[in-house]
């Protein structure tokens, strides 16, 4: 009887505690999403019904206040619904929100310590060191490698469309192969052709990252905890639940660096710049010698460890491959539904190629890609409607009073900014579901610039933004120059549940293509 009474008291106390915990935002004066114990706002994520980014979008749509309380399972956080406040958090008040609040353990798990998740001075130092990697001159130097991969893409498509007829292709998977090969070539310094050899080591590792069925349940849970609850992720890491893919990629980086240093090999790619940073403590300025061979030195004098190079290479791989593939494929999908936009983009590509004396099936140049201004607008519109990451996150690092409000965001509170919600909000982008590149034209702006943040904003904006845009434009230009895109009825993309932060279409993206005569 006593045991039953104690159990009843325990359960009642637990229920009261849970009710108090999951109503704290209301008690603090914030509008709040109704929590489902113990999942908080993420019941549909737990049951694999809805992607996390779409759950945040749903809350954005149904609520009305600038700041809304949410619960990421047990962890309270705030969703920002106001574009000006979001930009203020990312830029002018960056000092109060300079960390992302994600899992990182520099000492015990060095492969977790990359530019995206590092905090405080560690992040500032590494950001300063890596920024020169993406200067105009460096991007020009790497352009030929990007163009080579794009040529393989066009060759692959030409073989599939050799009969001259129009065929329905699932372009997302094809362009994922293109993006993975670019990352493998430009960042990891590998000579790969996944179109010809789809079972190569690098592509197999890529599939294990982005196809949930190819990773263990423990690893999927660990990946979720990296974002939802970093202390749990740290505990799992200490218990040995680390991602084997990152260690395989580390081995690839180590082998490649050792090979280059032993054989005096030099390539114009990002890995060469990392080797330069490792051996000299900095990346050279833009001059004739910026790609020159870098002498190796004793291991104890290295300024950058193999683990740090591997960790950041892995970051650029994750950030670059899926987002590049998505940007290109969503653009082509929208072209198919808007023939007038397609014609305008295709005419521009034809005119620029003729102006620069280039052939559709031949090489592109960096200068020609920069001349394709309408294609820039198309990429901007694609990243607005389909932001590479549907949300941004930050952690409040010191108490912050919300402007024009009596409310305060307390230190250590997690912050979620729904980019999908802001980018599809008609108060910022009229008729947001329409695909309208012209809304970004300088002479006819039809949007609120404060609300456009596809690559983030402020000091922590995407460091490789320009590289991503170039990779996307090169593929788009070559496809438009060589193939016709069949028109199709308008149909909005539906997204499936996925553990990765990016949005993944249900059944891919199917578009009709044929060779241009």
Commentary on this structure:
This protein is an alpha+beta fold. Helix content is 49%, strand content 9%. The strands form 4 sheets. A 5-stranded mixed β-sheet has the order 1-2-3-8-5. A 3-stranded antiparallel β-sheet has the order 4-12-9. A hairpin with a 7-residue loop joins strand 10 and strand 11. The mean pLDDT is 89.
Number of strands: 12
Number of helices: 19
Strand content: 5-15%
Strand order of the largest sheet: 1-2-3-8-5
Distance between the termini: 87 Å
Largest sheet: 5 strands, mixed
Structural class: alpha+beta
Estimate percent helicity.
Answer: 40-55%
Poorly predicted ranges (pLDDT <50, ≥5 residues)? none
Radius of gyration: 24 Å
Mean pLDDT: 89
Cα shape = globular
List keywords for this structure.
globular, 19 helices, alpha+beta, 9% strand, five-stranded mixed beta sheet
Question: What is this entry, summarized?
Answer:
With 517 residues, the chain is an alpha+beta fold. It is built from 19 helices and 12 strands.
Topology:
Blueprint: H1 2-21, H2 24-27, E1 31-32, H3 43-46, H4 52-62, E2 67-72, E3 75-80, H5 83-90, H6 120-130, H7 136-160, E4 167-170, H8 171-186, H9 201-210, H10 217-228, H11 230-238, H12 244-263, H13 270-280, H14 306-337, H15 339-355, H16 366-371, H17 373-385, E5 391-395, E6 400-401, E7 408-409, E8 414-418, H18 419-423, H19 465-482, E9 483-485, E10 495-496, E11 504-505, E12 510-515
Parallel strand pairs: 1-2, 3-8
Antiparallel strand pairs: 2-3, 4-12, 5-8, 6-7, 9-12, 10-11
Helix pairs in contact: 7-8, 7-19, 8-14, 10-11, 12-14, 14-15, 14-17, 14-19, 15-17
